[in-house]
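User: Predict the structure for this protein chain, please.
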Amino acid sequence: MRGVTTAPGADDDPPLLDDLMPWSVAPPRFGRSWIVAPDARTLRARWDRLTAAEGAEREALFRPSRARTPSSAVAALPGQRTGTVRFARESGPCPAPVRVAHGPFDEQWLLPDHRLIDTARPELWRVAGEPQIFTVEQGYVPGASGPALLVTAALPEGRSPAGRPGRIRPLFRRPGGLEPNVTPGLLPFLSERYGHDVDAREWLAWTLAAARPSPAGCRVPLPGDPGTWAAGVALGRELADVQLRGALSGTKPRLPGGRRPYVRSAVPALPGAMTYDAEDEALGLGEGRISPVPPEAWEFRVGGVRVLEQWFAHRTASAEPGSLEALGPAAWPQEWTSELLDLVTVLALLGAREPERAALTTEHAVGREELRAAGVLPVPDRARRPASVLDHREEGPEGQFALL
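Assistant: Here is the predicted structure, written as structure tokens:
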């Protein structure tokens, strides 16, 4: 299939994702790096070190910002049972760390304490949890390869390898998978055009396969041909399942042909560098060695940055001595190796399908004029605002209940 080229800004350009999934949230801004770590034990150790300190030492370890200091009065995050007294008086146990998407394909752990986070985006926390899926738009980098859109079930930080954080768009506007975050009228329009009921998950699958970067944001072509739509949806479902580590199919992603990466030589306690031997399809971590690592995994990039190298850098970067960031494992944990093996599999599977995803184009795409004629556009203002979620109470500062 050949794509139709139109002048930039032409009315029949593919519509922007911003007009099709209209409720979006800017990425959280954590403000202090020590509240995120690749393992939960490190976060508990940092919490214990901080709460054992007093006065000026606690404040220095805390790393105050304009948004947060140990004296800030802050409400609890939605769904989290954490203290709301001013952190200067905090002496309780560490809150249970939660999984976050710290960057593309890099799940880490976060202390979910609102007193520690500069800008937490509570509206995201209110709708997090099964069966929510977050889409994360990647920053536009001219000429860069890789997907324009990623999905995760973990709360996304929205970090972009290119340094340009993208918008976060939950698939559902309410907890429990209620009210799809799709422009009103779009799903009925697509259902009529393609001859079957198109639901939110089918829409997400198409979007994941078809989204294309542009300076204005992700654009999502809508094909006139039901066959093209069906092919894109089938591809998108597979891509989504791999990115979500088998959560949709219930089967953990595996390489075809019985191949799987495994440890040939043990990873040393302090691996100095990550290298790749293309001839042997082997990944080196210092003296450690993992293979087979298909070239598609090694070369997989987001925003122009190689994912494996960034994942490794997040776990081996040096930190200021005496800071909370410097508290971490004394040696490379076995669980990191297991996570790396899974990541290699995920990237290899996605990389193998990347040419197919990149080649997915549409002829006679549905333009914005047709969407306006069908009443789908313009987007009503209410669809761009978060839904009211009032079925639970949230604790405000110093134990008072927050008013929503």
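The first helix runs from residue 17 to 20.
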